[in-house]
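User: Can you recover a sequence for this backbone? Please restate the input before giving your answer.

Assistant: Of course. Working from this structure:
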């Protein structure tokens, strides 16, 4: 989704430069460019606009990578931007960090969706067999076509049985395996923890066998 958002935004920027009029919300960036134009001069403004399109293109290219490769690619792009002149650096870096945030948000959404799919598939397995699966591979091919990958590290999503149920989880942004346990109360960043679908009690599904 984020990749196509960026493509759409770049197309709108291109068309705006050709004179196409858009709703007022779009003009926030354009207003900034207009405000600084008298001070920058046309040549610098064109450099800034061209540079913005290059950054858009780089972010779109990064959007085509596997989700777990994107953070490092954006970090490399930030390093390249840091080497530019200050007038080009500040806006591009802000745009790149916004892209990084969007990619991470997209990964969190994918992780939540895929852990839900696997947990529901595991409950279907439990209803049919009378027991929770020993691993996610037990769900193949009847309940899922393949084990889904963690969008943060590219490995299969994790699964752990408990005394009364199970958890399916992603490592999350910090890439630390917390065993699918909830974050500690003192955690500063709510995203520095596993993304978990937890079935506390699977017995209602097991009793139907």
């Amino acid at each position: 989704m984020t990749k196509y958002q960026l493509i759409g935004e770049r197309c709108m920027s291109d068309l705006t430069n050709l004179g196409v009029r858009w709703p007022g919300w779009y003009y926030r960036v354009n207003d900034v460019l207009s405000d600084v134009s008298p001070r920058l001069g046309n040549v610098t403004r064109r450099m800034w606009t061209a540079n913005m399109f290059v950054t858009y293109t780089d972010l779109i290219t990064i959007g085509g990578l596997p989700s777990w490769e994107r953070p490092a690619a954006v970090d490399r792009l930030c390093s390249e931007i840091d080497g530019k002149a200050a007038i080009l650096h500040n806006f591009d870096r802000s745009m790149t960090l916004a892209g990084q945030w969007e990619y991470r948000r997209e990964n969190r959404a994918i992780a939540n969706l895929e852990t839900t799919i696997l947990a529901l598939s595991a409950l279907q397995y439990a209803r049919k067999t009378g027991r929770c699966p020993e691993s996610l591979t037990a769900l193949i091919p009847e309940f899922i076509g393949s084990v889904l990958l963690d969008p943060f590290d590219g490995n299969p999503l994790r699964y752990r049985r408990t005394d009364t149920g199970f958890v399916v989880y992603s490592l999350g942004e910090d890439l630390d395996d917390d065993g699918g346990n909830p974050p500690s109360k003192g955690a500063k960043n709510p995203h520095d923890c596993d993304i978990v679908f937890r079935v506390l009690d699977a017995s209602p599904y097991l009793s139907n066998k």
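That completes the design. The longest strand covers residues 166-170.
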